[in-house]
């Protein structure tokens, strides 16, 4: 965990006003430390399944799932091809103010399963909360949200299962003017 935190704090960058979590995944030492850190944060929830939101959840989630020896299920955003028994929900406005249609595959999530969501960042929590509703509609339970950066509002935190993170938003370098 210390190693993962160190790598995140060292590698994090703002690019043209946007937080960049892709850059830290390009470095092999950061990538492996971050995956190991997220895996250790997810393990206590004893997940049967890892869920990941497009796009960075598609990179981080399967790696954590493989490390834990469980499967991975995607949450796609509107427009992505997604054959199968698809279930859809629209989010409340996210950190950009956008309402996003999220979907997942009902046939890939079994009733009673313990599910952990892996993502890079949480802010308003709108995408995580809608993912929790999708999981619930499948009869399963979202037990934890595990992210690189936790910047969740109190309102989001109150509605979600426990959030575990490598770093908080306040620990990151401030964006220069
Ligand atoms: O807590 P919230 O306000 O819901 O925001 C968090 C979500 O936003 C980011 O995804 P983003 O939509 O930027 O991903 P993308 O640009 O890679 O599609 C992040 O990866 C989370 O999935």
Automatic annotation (TrEMBL):
Pathway as given in its UniProt record: Purine metabolism
Record's Gene3D superfamilies?
Answer: 3.40.50.2020
Phosphoribosyltransferase domain sequence ranges: 44-154
Which keywords has UniProt assigned to this entry?
Cytoplasm, Glycosyltransferase, Purine salvage, Transferase
Q: Would you identify the family this protein belongs to, as annotated?
A: Belongs to the purine/pyrimidine phosphoribosyltransferase family.
Q: Assign the protein's first listed, main location to one coarse class.
A: cytoplasm
What's the protein called, per UniProt?
A: Phosphoribosyltransferase domain-containing protein
**Pfam families linked to this entry:** Pribosyltran
* Compartments, record wording: Cytoplasm
Q: Where are the transmembrane segments?
A: none
Tell me which InterPro entries the record gives.
Adenine_PRTase, PRTase-like, PRTase_dom
Q: How does it assemble?
A: Homodimer.
């Amino acid at each position: 965990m210390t190693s993962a935190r160190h790598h995140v704090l060292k590698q994090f960058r703002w690019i043209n006003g946007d937080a960049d979590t892709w850059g830290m995944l390009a470095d092999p030492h950061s990538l492996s430390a971050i995956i190991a850190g997220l895996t250790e944060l997810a393990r206590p929830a004893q997940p049967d399944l890892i869920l990941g939101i497009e796009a960075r959840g598609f990179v981080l989630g399967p790696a954590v799932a493989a490390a834990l020896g469980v499967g991975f299920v995607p949450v796609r955003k509107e427009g992505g091809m997604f054959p199968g028994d698809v279930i859809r929900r629209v989010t409340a406005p996210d950190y950009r103010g956008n309402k996003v249609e999220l979907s997942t595959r009902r046939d890939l999530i079994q009733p009673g399963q313990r599910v952990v969501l892996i993502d890079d960042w949480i802010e308003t929590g709108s995408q995580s909360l809608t993912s929790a509703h999708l999981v619930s509609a499948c009869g399963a339970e979202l037990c934890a949200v595990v992210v690189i950066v936790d910047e969740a509002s109190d309102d989001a935190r109150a509605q979600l299962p426990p959030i575990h993170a490598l770093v908080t938003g306040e620990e990151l370098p401030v964006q220069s003017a």
